[in-house]
Amino acid sequence: MASERSSIDHPIDDIDKEVDEELATGISKESAALAETAVRRNKHKGKVHRQNSKDNVVASSFVQGPRQWKNSRRSRNGYGRGLPKKGGAGGKGVWGKPGSELLETYEDVNDPNFDNENMSNGDIELKVVVPEVSDEEIKKKVEPIVLEYFENGDTQEAILSIEEQIPWNRRDALVEQVIEIALDHKPSHREMTSVLISDLFPHVISEADISKAFESLLANINDLMLDVPDAPTVIGNFIARAIADDCIPPKFIHTMKEKSDQKDFQEALIHADTLLSMKHGLVRLHNVWGVGGALRPVKALTRQMSLLLQEFLSSSDIEEASRCLRLLEVPHFHHELVYEAIVMALEANSAVKEETLCTLLKAFSDQVLITTDQMERGFLRVFDDLPDISMDVPLAYIILDRFVDRCHKLGFLTETILKKLPSRGRKRFVSEGDQDVIRRNKIEH
């Protein structure tokens, strides 16, 4: 029975194999025929369309784009969001994924300094190299920064410019150049310089930078005196102010005194020591340069102008008076000086002082220290206040007429002032005998 079954089973298996081979051959022939037909059709149309293997959809359903999409690297199978393949990193001739250039190491074999052996030995050590900058280059970079700071007074902007342009190893030359520039400017600019140094410390400049800068300035003090005769006093003020602002320690003065016996060198240090030794010295040093220009209170300016006029009456030094007026730096407030000069002449009631004050106003007008509008404003202020002034000075109207006449003869008064000069009418008490004479004159006229 077993032999019969095996004999029966083998023919059946052979039949199945033959059927399967015929089916596979037929299918392959059929698919080959279909492929040849598709190739012929596509050749006739001029372009081969690919099949989509995912859903077995004929590729002819894909909508072709315009010609400018020819070199596009987006997916062309009709699926996806239209993004580049592999994030832009795939394909020939592409730039690669954004940021990938930072992860790659480039070695140029044609570089004459290229050494393939040392590159892999770990013998190469990379260090930060700060280029050497000369004093002339530092000066060229610092000067525009400081001059712009003098214009706007913005320390934050100056700090950003310094950090960007001045290397950290030359910050001592920076401090030195800033102070040298301030020597050629007004006291208000020197005050701004002290404020800038205080704001730069300690984040931008260090104590060693400031100390080294002052040491260099003291060593070159003779050269500085050629342009600034009072350089020892000014540098002494800078040193004392830096100590008051806690930028350098007080022992700096005593340390520097031992380094040189030169006269001007010692004079600057002695002056700084004197400022620090006086009563409430640290507090007063905050105003060592004075309060600049319009920031000064009106009462303080008025007092300074009054002292200027009093000193001129005693010395008659026009140049000194001109220098003091310039140092006040308030050209918009010069009418106050004219007002004070006229009131001083009215109160003095002296021909000599009137002549002296007229000479001073004439000099200021010729030098254009006091402009025409400031001169007019000062005189017109006196004209408006004359009724109140005459209560303390009964002869104020008479003295003012005389003073204006003196100034007019010198030739610096305008016609506006002469036209607005006030005159005080006198009240006449008519007696009984004069009444008839006055009536007759009225009737005749």
- The assigned CATH architecture of the domain at 135-287 is Alpha Horseshoe
Shape: elongated
Order of helices and strands: HHHHHHHHHHHHHHHHHHHH
Distinct helical segment count:
20
Distance between the termini: 180 Å
CATH topology of the domain at 135-287: Serine Threonine Protein Phosphatase 5, Tetratricopeptide repeat
What gyration radius follows from the Cα positions, in whole Å? 49 Å
Strand content: under 5%
Q: Which structural class best describes the helix and strand composition?
A: mainly alpha
CATH secondary-structure class of the domain at 135-287: Mainly Alpha
What is the mean pLDDT?
78
**What portion of residues is helical?**
55-70%
Largest sheet: none
- Say how many strands there are: 0
pLDDT below 50 for ≥5 consecutive residues: which ranges? 1-12, 44-62, 426-432
Task: Provide a brief overview of the structure.
This protein has helices at residues 2-45, 116-119, 135-152, 155-165, 171-183, 187-200, 207-219, 221-227, 231-244, 251-257, 263-277, 281-284, 298-315, 318-328, 335-348, 351-366, 372-392, 396-410, 415-419, 432-444. The protein is an all-alpha fold and 445 residues long.
How does this structure look, described?
- The radius of gyration is 49 Å and the shape is elongated.
- Among the domains are: 135-287, Serine Threonine Protein Phosphatase 5, Tetratricopeptide repeat, CATH 1.25.40; 297-419, Serine Threonine Protein Phosphatase 5, Tetratricopeptide repeat (Alpha Horseshoe).
- It has 20 helices and no strands.
- It is mainly alpha-helical.
- 62% of the residues lie in helices and 0% in strands.
- 22% of the residues are buried.
- The longest helix is centred in the N-terminal third of the chain and has 44 residues, at 2-45.
- Belongs to the PDCD4 family.
- This is Programmed cell death protein 4.
- InterPro entries: ARM-type_fold (IPR016024), Initiation_fac_eIF4g_MI (IPR003891), PDCD4 (IPR039778).
- Residues 54-63 have a biased composition (Polar residues).
- Residues 36-96 are annotated as: Disordered.
